Fold these 2 entries.
Entry 1:
Amino acid sequence: MAYNEKLSNRIRESMAALPDVEEKLMFGGVCYMLNGKMCVGVVKDEMMCRIDPDVYEEALSKKGCREMIFTGKPMKGYVYVSEEGMKSKKDFDYWIGLCLQFNEKAKSSKKKK
């Protein structure tokens, strides 16, 4: 299934002024890498957010947010946000902000040889 291009454009626009942003196709969607690290993306119709594990539980209590389950296990620090959780610009900016804040201290994935 294709991913939501409108949501992807919304994310792209929100990150346009940042240096070192790269788009990569993955998870059957698109991921926006910042400084070589996975930051935020789109899978089907949901925004995939990489957030600080310290705010993970709090984030799950927000409207439209759910765990990202990959290979049968929840991935702590990754959540999906549905349209319901980001209808307003304020809500959308909240999620983008969490992703950008964590990106500063997130570790890069090991490069495959």
Entry 2:
Amino acid sequence: MNPTDSNIDIEFRSVEEIRDYQNLRLREALRYLAGNSPYYRRMFSREGIDVESILTIDDLVKLPFTEKKDLQLYNDEFLCVGKEKIIDYVTTSGTLGDPVTFGCTEKDLQRLAFNEKKSFECAGLRPGNIVQLMTTIDKRFMAGLAYFLGIRELGASVIRVGNGMPELQWDTIRRLRPDTLMCVPSFILRLIEYAERHGIDYRNSSVRRIIGIGEGLRNQDFSLNLLGSRIREKWDVDLFATYSSTEMGATFSECAFACGGHVHPELIIVEIIGDDNLPVADGETGEVVVTTLGVEGMPLLRFRTGDISCKITTPCRCGRNSYRLTPLVGRKNNMIKLKGTTIYPPAINDVLDNTPYVVNYVVEVGSSFAGTDEVAVKVGVASQCGFDMIKDLKDRFRSRIRVAPIVEIMSPEDVNAILNPGSNRKPLKFIDRRPQSLTSKP
């Protein structure tokens, strides 16, 4: 996976060297797709595209996008190798209901390990660190396997505890003394609550670093958001945010200076696309579109992630010259226009995650008779408080996002039944009931 003959990491090379390197890897990726991918061969033929004419990243605008529904409708046609070469199968959610399957070869698993090794190094991990992994490694998830492979490649130690189970987590921390926790950040609040209830001196535990996955910890200006601030107020640990997805097979991790997730140029090319489907200027917000590099089983070309972010190209104080991504604003398809105000679900989640009496919740979006967005928040509370919780919640929403959704108070058990219907691997915190177009061009 070394990008050059030099021992200098490509991320620390000049911007010009990084760009030249990515241009070279892009041309290699296009030739591989043209020679091995049934889906992209057909697309190139249909669109009259000669891949040899695509020489630089700037030429990517000449190529169509790949969307999630394409992966679902033509899943097998994205596979570039015989199925006998597939070592591991993973799945991710699909826009049409059924999950999308990805096949990983041995080379792909090595690439995953390299990716996570670099991301962990970015977050300050070295051989000798002990990482308590609070995410599942089963259920066809890629993430847990990737983290395990990366920690192993780095030479650090891993404790595979899995998600949930605060009692087991604290027992493991007491017995094995990890210095790093890797988990969904909101679970840290549950760990803290459990520790305070059971007299555990968590502030003086062995833990010094928390790497967050799946949820944001920072605002667009890189300050801690409400969730990050709440954790830090309780527990003086170093917080690192990451962004990744199964489709990318790559992770963007913060360094110690916490000014965006670093892109690994060996593994991925990132474009930020505006509403006109053209690249926006650096520093402007748009949709994250990725082209994977070095993937053997199911590489992707100009894949629309649906995530909204922006690219930061100023040098980082850590010395890396690769560009970075800001914390995600939200998902393009989940954008809500409520009473004239544009918001994304993470802003709603941030309010609810930081309301002490809220146990769990579901956000539902639908369309009114007039075609405008309607937002209803179903909130689970353990017991009635001595004040008007609906008014309190609406006041919290207005102070944070300027508008207030419909609020319905329910029991945690009733909310949990909506969150976990049984057929999904992840809790359904956001349910979009608005009509959507699901057509796709073969």
